[in-house]
Specification:
heterodimer, A: mainly alpha, 2 helices, rod-shaped, B: mainly alpha, 26 helices, elongated
């Protein structure tokens, strides 16, 4: 009986550790998402203000990468 | 040789004093305890601050007044000008601060170090300071054994303070007891002869004790117990100030040019300040009397007046010398010129930097970029390209590569030995030493730097495998094989150019996006995956022998590019989490 209680305590302790860790990961993910959003907006503005076709294509490629990364994170978050 | 013969004699001399005079033994024990207290305080502050001091110094030395204030505050807080000197020299070597900023910090530190005299004169000799030492030592030891690093640091500071207080107590007891047997005051000397004699005594004492703070504590306790005259104590204080720079200059002999420049700046400052103090000694003593009356310091409170004198003459030194800092910088840079170092050796790694984690990481990163730049040269030449024709100039790389048909005769083995190997060794050795003083996060960075270093070396090995066939087929009469080898050259050149452009990108996400785009383009190098090899073989456009060479070489080029991209991640994306985003 005592051993059961002890194991339960240990389990709770480790779960507590896990939830703290998960919370940290969530916070970091939210921070990255917000930075990604800002970057995507600023990149779109840059594309609109650029005249060189080559530069526009380069920026569009980079933008596509960032949008895909953001979508992947959102997908992971929704799971 | 000198040190080897003098040191045993010095030890014998100290042993003789210890056994011949009980009071002298108490005083010397006081000095020893005081010094060990300073060591504990220094170590404790390093642990307690957790790199905060380095961060403040890095950001607060942009102009001279800021640098002087930072030096003053930091030394007042840490009570160790030697710790500050070490950090400043290491920052200077890692190019994190300018020479004028570093000199400013040293100026400020000189004023800050005078607070030791204030502490000793206001608390040390007036109250039974040793009484407070015991609780400090007890609590200090309790905190010292805590697992938390900050508390350990706090514990060390308390132990240090406890020992400093205890040391002062011993010195005071020793001088008081000594007075009943031998009155040192009988050796008091008037006039400038006395000034010079006592200045030399102060200098020698500081060179032997290796701490102007401890010498000042000794002078103040001797003065408070009436063992020396006030005017002679002033001369001793000047001597202690000069003596501390003698120690710094001797210490800098084995240092790099930055260490030497700073030690000489410190020396010049203290010599000029000392000369001013000697010439105007009696006027300064009068000024001290006037300021002391404003500060309500009693006329016969000589220990406090000595502390005030110590501060005033250092302050005057800063006011006189600070306007000439830029001239001093020019002089020092001429005096100790940076040697044009052999390109294959480390430029930023220095023994003194290795002890300061923040500076060590910055120095390592710079050195890794230096290694990468050397590797870029070797890689470009191996592909018969010159860096200045395509890197960072926005030219059409396809055209540049196709028009570069002259073979660059480079022996990769020689180039590796000359430009990579020694530098690689320097970096790995420095990184291994540096990680001893680091926390887990910093050690993680060191690990990623080591891997990046290994990738650079492997990239050189990869290009060595490519070189022969690139040179052979880039001018082949078979247009198809020529095109394929040019695709390899163009692919690697675009990656080198793309990575170079990351230096102007100060946003991790933007760097990441650029690198992911480069990664996508890199796939074109894998001739099997793109299916181009099937076309070439099916239509018998190239011979079978050519095809096998091409398959191997395209794979080598792909691997090489992968390593370059990985190196760029480590060097130009700071955030570890962002580096891993979007990895397929």
């Amino acid at each position: 009986m005592k051993i059961d209680k002890l194991f339960k305590k240990i389990e709770t302790f480790f779960n507590m550790d896990k939830s703290i860790e998960e919370e940290k990961i969530d916070k970091k993910r939210e921070k990255i998402l917000s930075s990604l959003d800002k970057k995507i907006i600023s990149m779109k503005e840059k594309i609109n203000n650029t005249t060189s076709t080559k530069k526009i294509q380069e920026k569009k490629n980079e933008l596509a990468v960032l949008i895909k990364i953001r979508d992947d994170i959102l997908l992971e978050k929704s799971k | 040789m000198f040190k080897k013969s003098v040191y045993p004699l010095f030890l014998l001399f100290v042993t003789y004093i210890l056994f011949s005079s009980h009071d002298a033994k108490t005083i010397i024990a006081g000095i020893a305890i005081f010094l060990i207290g300073m060591v504990f305080m220094e170590d404790g502050f390093k642990l307690f601050s957790g790199g905060m001091l380095e961060k403040i110094l890095e950001k607060s030395t942009s102009n001279l007044p800021k640098a002087i204030t930072t030096g003053f505050l930091a030394t007042t807080l840490v009570q160790s000008s030697s710790l500050l000197s070490i950090i400043v020299i290491s920052f200077l070597s890692a190019e994190l601060i300018s020479l004028s900023g570093a000199i400013g910090v040293i100026f400020g530190s000189n004023i800050g170090s005078t607070t030791t005299a204030w502490i000793v004169s206001s608390f040390g000799v007036k109250i039974n300071i040793a009484y407070y030492a015991m609780p400090m030592l007890i609590f200090g030891v309790m905190f010292r054994f805590n697992t938390n690093k900050t508390l350990q640091g706090f514990g060390n500071i308390l132990i240090g303070l406890g020992f400093v207080f205890l040391g002062i107590g011993y010195m005071k007891d020793g001088f008081e007891a000594l007075k009943s047997g031998l009155d040192l005051a009988q050796f008091a000397m008037d006039g400038y002869l006395g000034v010079f004699v006592y200045i030399i005594v102060g200098m020698i004492a500081t060179v032997i004790i290796q701490s102007s703070g401890a010498t000042m504590a000794l002078i103040i306790t001797a003065l408070a117990t009436g063992q020396i005259e006030y005017v002679n104590a002033l001369s001793l204080a000047i001597g202690a100030n000069v003596g501390t720079t003698v120690t710094a200059v001797i210490g800098s002999l084995s240092s790099n040019e930055n260490g030497k420049r700073l030690a000489v700046a410190h020396f010049i400052f203290n010599i000029i300040t000392g000369l001013i103090a000697i010439v105007f000694l009696y006027q300064l003593a009068q000024l001290v009397d006037i300021v002391a009356s404003f500060l309500t310091i009693a006329n016969d409170d000589y220990s406090m007046k000595l502390a005030l004198f110590h501060t005033i003459f250092n302050l005057i030194g800063v006011l006189v010398i600070a306007p000439f800092t830029s001239k001093l910088v020019t002089f020092l840079e001429k005096l100790f010129q940076t040697e044009e170092k052999d390109i294959s050796r480390a430029r930023y790694l220095d023994d003194i930097v290795v002890t300061v984690p923040e500076a060590a990481l910055q120095a390592l990163k710079k050195e890794l970029i230096h290694l990468y730049d050397n590797a870029t040269e070797v890689l470009s030449h191996a592909l018969s390209l010159h860096r200045h024709t395509y890197i960072g100039i926005g030219k059409n790389i396809d055209e540049v590569v196709k028009s570069s048909t002259l073979t660059i005769d480079i022996n990769i083995d020689d180039a590796y030995k000359h430009k990579i190997k020694s530098l690689y060794g320097d970096i790995i050795s420095f990184a291994t030493q540096a990680q001893d003083n680091m926390n887990a996060a910093d050690k993680d960075k060191i690990y990623s730097y080591k891997i990046a270093c290994r990738d650079i070396v492997e990239a050189i090995k990869d290009v060595e495998k490519l070189q022969k066939n690139v040179n052979r087929f880039m001018r082949s009469k078979n247009k198809h094989i020529q095109d394929e080898y040019n695709i390899i050259r163009i692919g690697i050149a675009k990656i080198l150019d793309g990575i170079f452009l990351l230096r102007n990108t100060h946003d991790d996400l933007e760097s990441l996006a650029k690198l992911r785009v480069l990664e996508g383009e890199m796939k074109n190098l894998d001739i099997v995956q793109t299916g181009r090899i099937d076309e070439l073989i099916r239509h018998q456009l190239i011979e079978t022998k050519m095809a096998t060479s091409l398959i191997n070489d395209s794979m080598n080029a792909y691997n090489l590019s992968n390593k370059l991209i990985h190196i760029a991640h480590v060097l130009w994306i700071e955030d570890k989490e962002i580096r891993t985003l979007g990895v397929e």
